[in-house]
Automatic annotation (TrEMBL):
<dbReference type="InterPro" id="IPR016152">
    <property type="entry name" value="PTrfase/Anion_transptr"/>
</dbReference>
<dbReference type="Pfam" id="PF00359">
    <property type="entry name" value="PTS_EIIA_2"/>
</dbReference>
<keyword id="KW-0597">Phosphoprotein</keyword>
<feature type="domain" description="PRD">
    <location>
        <begin position="287"/>
        <end position="394"/>
    </location>
</feature>
<keyword id="KW-0963">Cytoplasm</keyword>
<keyword id="KW-0808">Transferase</keyword>
<protein>
    <recommendedName>
        <fullName>Ascorbate-specific PTS system EIIA component</fullName>
    </recommendedName>
</protein>
<dbReference type="InterPro" id="IPR051351">
    <property type="entry name" value="Ascorbate-PTS_EIIA_comp"/>
</dbReference>
<dbReference type="InterPro" id="IPR011608">
    <property type="entry name" value="PRD"/>
</dbReference>
<comment type="function">
    <text>The phosphoenolpyruvate-dependent sugar phosphotransferase system (sugar PTS), a major carbohydrate active transport system, catalyzes the phosphorylation of incoming sugar substrates concomitantly with their translocation across the cell membrane. The enzyme II UlaABC PTS system is involved in ascorbate transport.</text>
</comment>
<dbReference type="InterPro" id="IPR002178">
    <property type="entry name" value="PTS_EIIA_type-2_dom"/>
</dbReference>
<dbReference type="InterPro" id="IPR036095">
    <property type="entry name" value="PTS_EIIB-like_sf"/>
</dbReference>
<feature type="domain" description="PTS EIIB type-2">
    <location>
        <begin position="399"/>
        <end position="486"/>
    </location>
</feature>
<keyword id="KW-0418">Kinase</keyword>
<dbReference type="Pfam" id="PF00874">
    <property type="entry name" value="PRD"/>
</dbReference>
<keyword id="KW-0598">Phosphotransferase system</keyword>
<feature type="domain" description="PTS EIIA type-2">
    <location>
        <begin position="541"/>
        <end position="682"/>
    </location>
</feature>
Length: 689
């Protein structure tokens, strides 16, 4: 009996920890409670099959292994791997190994971790050396000491500050953590427990991602101190010794969770990061933080003045803004850089709001003595924009809409904000995930979605970020759907000629731009909207690493379909009844889904349980018979939301599978990167044709 990858991960966590509570398992695995309960059931089946007691549970302790698993009984997933890291991943891995390693490192060590050739490792190291030059760091090698970094301790810490979040957000996160920090699981758990205790003592809740990042940042700091690589004293940090955060850091770093002795400077370094942590809750009294209160008031006054608006319920706004303002203030005051991947897009899509926010931040810049970084200004833009949005819409008889976004809450907020600006005559009720949309009880007339969705309402498929041409096209579609008629696009150049006959134009370029904006703002109806006109996703947008499954075997073709469908079920893009509908269809019509030797594409009707367009890809080590003389090793589930949105991806898939050499290569591969490479290749080729 074999364990699937996810269940093997759960078993490994329990093997490495005395006990874990459900919330700890959720945090460590990124799985939902329902997914974990399913995996625990699978692990129990595996344990009983191999003669072990099932997983134990106690309310206070959580889940634990009753018996210790013998090494020879561990699943292959837990003892070896066949994944190949990307160049980018390898550079960060090698860099952190050099920074944190406790023993001299040679090329052999990097080969054994990355499973690549000696020449590949040497090329990676040369690239790392070049990239470090602009940071004034040198990568050196000696037979005695192996590879090492030479340069300032602060520059090395900045590398850790950048690389750790990248690794934690990487698709190969779990594997990279196991390679970089083997046998550190207990220490990692202990550090996180200390940080969670600090949360409670400070009366705040850190954002989940930031809490995990700080856990590993403090682990790395502990390792660097242990190597003797300590920070130089920074006198500007000294005033922080009076803060509650510093006192808690001193106490925390003296606990058993840390193996090295932290000096005052290192504790201050950790305090800076603690103060600059993004949070979702902060009950510390705003009234007692006079400096922050004064700055918030001045910045808000400036925003109202520049934007010619009045923010309602200022006290509530201050309480919400304070949660972001305080950590942002400390980050900017002490030069802690944060990466905001949406900053450029926010500035491009909301140039006016961004510019007004930058003007409003001048009182803060005066105190800091330097400009507010673009990444931080973008965060403030979202806060002011969100509050303006909150105070503007009343329930009335307008058409009602919901927004469905698969890109997370941040993108959902940006999208609904844009749509409300674009369509003030539509009442936008909420931004939902695909799963929430399927269970939504709100009454609405239309759906704006970033994915092709199965719905009986009017559907508009939109990109997460709308640029000017996207807005124009969408406005045409929506207004024609609402009112059923079109206004031809007005020629501004002709208007300019008419105006020039009767007036002197001092700035032709600005006048034409103003006319275009005015006409666009007041244009109500244009082209006929149809779903067929919406952009159809390509193959690589539907089959991602998350949706690819490598499975040893399936007991029969029915189980193969169930196993291949599991990623879509977990994402919420299909309902369980869709799986049964695919099985019934083959039972009634025969193995028609076997489209080429060794390959099956099971599917059913959209109305039989599809929530949104999606696909999954499963490769079996052992073929399963879908019918007499129909052995199959590749099972590709297609969940179409309508009659056409999947066609572009299906054409690309057909082209990929039309080459027997491609299929053979995939069947012989040992990791998912081969499948992903083919999918990306055929997605791009089709786009270029």
């Amino acid at each position: 009996m074999n364990l699937d990858e996810r269940s093997a991960d759960v078993l490994q966590l329990l093997q490495q920890s005395p006990s874990l509570k459900m919330d700890e398992l959720q945090e460590r695995t990124g799985l939902s409670r329902r997914q974990l309960q399913y995996s625990i059931g699978k692990v129990n089946d595996w344990l009983l099959h191999h003669g072990y007691q099932p997983i134990g549970y106690e309310r206070q302790a959580g889940y634990f292994l009753t018996d210790r698993i013998r090494e020879e009984d561990l699943p292959e997933k837990l003892t070896r791997r066949s994944y190949t890291f990307s160049e980018v991943d390898r550079e960060k891995m090698f860099g952190l190994m050099i920074l944190l390693g406790e023993e001299p490192l040679s090329v052999f060590h990097f080969q054994s971790i990355a499973l690549v050739s000696r020449n590949t490792v040497l090329k990676d190291l040369q690239r790392l050396k070049r990239n470090m030059q602009e940071r004034k760091l040198q990568v050196q090698y000696s037979k005695k000491d192996g590879y090492s970094f030479k340069g300032s301790s602060r520059a090395k810490r900045q590398l850790v500050e950048e690389w750790v979040p990248d690794i934690l957000h990487s698709a190969s996160r779990e594997l990279m953590i196991r390679c970089l920090w083997p046998n550190r699981e207990e220490q990692i758990a202990a550090i996180q427990q200390q940080l969670e205790q600090t949360e409670r003592q400070l009366g705040m809740t850190f954002a989940d991602e930031r809490l995990q990042e700080l856990t590993y940042l403090m682990l790395c700091t502990d390792q660097l101190i242990g190597k003797g690589d300590v920070l130089e004293e920074n006198r500007s940090w000294g005033e922080l010794t009076a803060s509650n955060e510093y006192k808690l850091v001193e106490r925390m770093t003296s606990s058993h969770a840390f193996r090295s002795k932290w000096n005052r400077t290192e504790c201050l370094y950790a305090t800076l990061h603690l103060l600059g942590m993004n949070r979702t809750r902060d009950i510390s009294p705003l009234q007692e933080d006079d400096e922050i209160r004064r700055l918030m008031t001045e910045v808000t006054d400036e925003f109202e003045r520049w934007a010619c608006v009045s923010l309602h319920d200022r006290e509530s706004f201050y309480r919400q803004l304070y949660i972001h303002f305080r950590p942002a203030y400390y980050r900017m005051l002490y030069g802690i850089h944060v990466v905001n991947t949406m900053a450029a897009r926010i500035r491009k899509v909301y140039p006016d709001l961004y510019q007004l926010t930058r003007k409003a931040l001048q009182p803060l810049e005066t105190v800091l003595g330097h400009p507010v970084p673009e990444s931080e200004a973008a965060y403030f833009t979202v806060h002011f924009g969100g509050w303006l949005r909150r105070q503007g819409t009343l329930l009335d008889d307008r058409k009602r809409a919901v927004v469905v976004c698969a890109n997370g809450i941040g993108m959902s907020n940006i999208l609904i904000y844009t749509l409300r600006e674009l369509f003030p005559d539509i009442l936008f009720l909420d931004a939902l995930s695909v799963r929430d949309a399927a269970e939504c009880i709100l009454e609405y007339d239309m759906v704006f979605s970033t994915v092709h969705l199965r719905t009986d309402k009017t559907l508009f498929v939109v990109p997460p970020i709308l640029e000017l041409q996207d807005k124009q096209k969408l406005r045409q579609q929506v207004m024609n759907e609402l009112y059923g008629y079109t206004v031809e696009k007005m020629d501004t150049s002709s208007l300019m000629k008419i105006i020039a006959q009767y007036a002197v134009i001092s700035n032709e370029e600005e006048l034409e731009k103003a006319l275009q904006q005015h006409i666009y703002a007041h244009a109500h109806k244009t082209n006929k909207h149809s779903l067929e006109g919406a952009e159809k996703p390509v193959l690589e947008e539907l089959i991602t690493e998350q949706n690819i499954v490598f499975q040893t075997r399936a007991s029969d073709w029915k189980e193969a379909i169930r196993l291949a469908s599991r990623p879509l079920l977990e994402m919420g893009t299909i309902e369980p009844r869709y799986i049964e509908a695919m099985i019934r269809s083959i039972e009634e019509n025969g193995p028609y889904v076997v489209i080429t030797p060794g390959v099956a594409i099971p599917h059913a009707r959209p109305d039989q349980g599809v929530r949104s367009l999606s696909m999954s890809f499963m490769r079996l080590d052992e073929a399963v018979e879908f019918g007499p003389g129909k052995p199959v090793r590749l099972v590709i589930i297609l969940a179409a939301a309508d009659r056409s949105s999947h066609l572009k991806a299906l054409v690309q898939l057909t082209q990929l599978l039309g080459e027997p050499a491609n299929i053979e290569d995939i069947l012989n591969s040992t990791d998912k990167s081969v499948v992903l490479n083919y999918i990306q290749q055929y997605s791009k080729e089709e786009q270029q044709q």
